[in-house]
Design a protein that fits this description.
mainly alpha
């Protein structure tokens, strides 16, 4: 099976950052529309983040994005575990400092890469 190309991988990263960068109310509406739970935002980012260094090597993403992407990953890692369970509730999107920090970092990356952060959220297909 052929692996996805760089433009596909870049699109995955940009789409995950777009959802992460959105205002909390927009994120909640997106989650409800697609019938997915809050941690899907972090899981989508995690999948895309795993390809970030390769995207930099392929000149699909600027080297300057890596520190912010790594920081988002650290924020989400710090929110994990039983003691952080409440941080994954939909209400936490608007109240939790970790979500606010990840949102701001995602916005920084999008502005650096695209010149703006407030983009239309992607449509997704959920296979159940």
């Amino acid at each position: 099976m052929e692996s996805p190309g760089p433009s596909f991988r870049r699109r995955l990263l940009i789409e995950s950052l777009t959802v992460l960068a959105a205002d909390a109310s927009v994120q909640v509406a997106w989650l409800e529309k697609h019938c997915v739970v809050t941690d899907e935002i972090a899981l989508d980012f995690d999948h895309a983040f795993r390809m970030a260094e390769r995207l930099v090597e392929e000149d699909q993403v600027g080297q300057g994005a890596l520190p912010d992407l790594r920081e988002i990953d650290l924020v989400f890692s710090g929110m994990s575990g039983a003691e952080g369970a409440g941080r994954w509730a939909r209400t936490a999107l608007s109240t939790d400092a970790g979500w606010a920090q990840a949102r701001q970092l995602a916005r920084q990356v999008l502005v650096a890469e695209l010149g703006e952060w407030n983009l239309p959220l992607p449509e997704i297909d959920v296979i159940r």
